Amino acid sequence: xxxxxxxxxxxxxxxxxxxxxxxxxxxxxxxxxxxxxxxxxxxxxxxxxxxxxxxxxxxxxxxxxxxxxxxxxxxxxxxxxxxxxxxxxxxxxxxxxxxxxxxxxxxxxxxxxxxxxxxxxxxxxxxxxxxxxxxxxxxxxxxxxxxxxxxxxxxxxxxxxxxxxxxxxxxxxxxxxxxxxxxxxxxxxxxxxxxxxxxxxxxxxxxxxxxxxxxxxxxxxxxxxxxxxxxxxxxxxxxxxxxxxxxxxxxxxxxxxxxxxxxxxxxxxxxxxxxxxxxxxxxxxxxxxxxxxxxxxxxxxxxxxxxxxxxxxxxxxxxxxxxxxxxxxxxx
Length: 332
Ligand code: FE
Fold this sequence. Notes:
Layout: E1 10-20, H1 23-33, E2 37-42, E3 45-49, E4 59-63, E5 68-76, H2 79-91, E6 95-99, E7 108-112, E8 118-122, E9 154-162, H3 165-174, E10 179-186, E11 191-198, E12 206-210, E13 219-225, H4 229-241, E14 246-253, E15 258-264, E16 270-276, E17 288-290, H5 292-295, E18 299-301, H6 308-311
Parallel strand pairs: 1-4, 5-8, 9-12, 10-17, 13-16
Antiparallel strand pairs: 1-5, 2-3, 3-4, 6-7, 7-8, 9-13, 10-11, 11-12, 14-15, 14-18, 15-16
């Protein structure tokens, strides 16, 4: 059987909306501690960006009663690609509706993934033009490096929880056109625990991992890129000095080879500062599969990840009917 042509309709992760019950403290976290710039304020929301992001905004902080992820926005490779994916999503019954687009973006098509996370796709995007005080001396850099706080360069990826990883992984591959990079499968290939996928050379931009509490539409973490491992270590100092809870790291994952630091922003969402990793350029990449033994504690070196890393997601919920699932070893 001939292999289907790969889909290249989605270019990259564009922006993520984060819900937070602590808007003022969360704003301080992202602006002053992570070093992002505020670009726009609307009722109940603040839009921010990393100094290296080319788009007007890559993070939207929205006030809500509980933490979690709002809309996950993906930029398509062309206006035609946007129409094609919207039609494919509608045909599956996953479409919500067209909108005029969030701040900085044109017409957008909203939909849900099989687990219920709200996503949207768009093509038109306002390119960021820095105000005089933020202009870079480099004409190929969208904004100057301010050196404030951690100084995250750009949005990198997110990991969401899903009750059925396999279904959502297939959705990412077949409908969004993402390449499967790595996966964790337990019980001799029968139990899919996690899948790391991407529409581009970045190792993963969307990861699905098992929701051990049987919830739907929940967030595991949102991740921002820094250029060096040293920046991750410095982030640990900056966040610790400010009383931010550090859950794990700095250390290195086996999967993705990412050098990570996981903290909780004041509203409760898990935020990763990330570097290292590796790019994937091969069009015929063979997904790497890890089993229980190979996976071990989920880390390449450094201490094992804590149990909260499996149990905690946002919004935080009590274990549902699926909560009697066997206790899992840490899977990242
Ligand atoms: Fe991550």
